[in-house]
Write a structure and sequence with these properties.
heterodimer; A: mainly beta; six-stranded mixed β-sheet; four-stranded antiparallel β-sheet; 10 strands; about 45% strand; B: mainly beta; seven-stranded mixed β-sheet
Chain lengths: ~110, ~120
């Protein structure tokens, strides 16, 4: 099956912009979706498709991609954005199933 | 309100069987795939498999094929994840989630709160 690779940890100063990356071959032909998970809580999805935000997700969250890499950008990070972030896409080698990245722990300083 | 409600925490011994559930409401349960996702303590998310409640078409990730059984009862809008013989390594949080999108867009837009499974002698 395919793999998605994320940096284990990223930090950002309060109010600054941070970009979280996700790399994998499946991203050449599929969009990534992104999920935020805070300690003790279920994940919630924050970005899907080309760059779509579900209702209730602040517009400081955005998504983009280039080649085999997808990006989640948080413009003006807030303290409440501190969380684990996971990317996900369709697994190009296993029909209809997906694959998650290993997750990125975002610390807001 | 669209939601998935999962069954409560379980504590089991190695070798025991277990079936946990995920009940959908607020939408057409038979029209969306349901995914099961494992999260071991302190670890990331991992796909286990999916089921389409409309016709019970089921697909498993290679790591979980033969290790668990995914099923659904569309008459009560409920999906299930079951084990016939639990191992300590099955200790984890298990989430169900609704799959949305198609083709190149593919995302889990509704999540259950998770079911904690603890397997210990």
């Amino acid at each position: 099956s395919s793999e998605l690779t994320q940096d284990p940890a990223v930090s950002v100063a309060l109010g600054q912009t941070v970009r979280i990356t996700c790399q994998g071959d499946s991203l050449r032909s599929n969009y990534a979706s992104w999920y935020q998970q805070k300690p003790g809580q279920a994940p919630i999805f924050v970005i899907y498709g080309k760059n779509n935000r579900p209702s209730g997700i602040p517009d400081r969250f955005s998504g983009s991609s280039s080649g085999n890499t997808a990006f989640l950008t948080i413009s003006g990070a807030q303290a409440e954005d501190e969380a684990d972030y996971y990317c996900n896409s369709r697994d190009s080698s296993v029909n209809l199933l997906g694959v998650f990245g290993g997750g990125t722990k975002l610390t807001v300083l | 309100e669209v939601q998935l409600v999962q069954s409560g925490a379980e504590v089991k011994k190695p070798g025991e069987s277990l079936k946990i559930s995920c009940k959908g409401s607020g939408y057409s349960f038979t029209s969306y795939w349901i995914a099961w996702v494992r999260q071991m303590p302190g670890k990331g998310l991992k796909w286990m498999g999916i089921i389409y409640p409309g016709d019970s078409d089921t697909r498993y990730s290679p790591s979980f094929q033969g290790q668990v059984t995914i099923s659904a009862d569309k008459s009560i809008s409920t999906a299930y994840l079951q084990w016939s013989s639990l191992k300590a390594s099955d200790t984890a949080m298990y989430y169900c989630a609704r799959l949305n999108g198609d083709g190149v867009e593919y995302y889990m837009d509704v999540w259950g709160k998770g079911t904690t499974v603890t397997v210990s002698s």
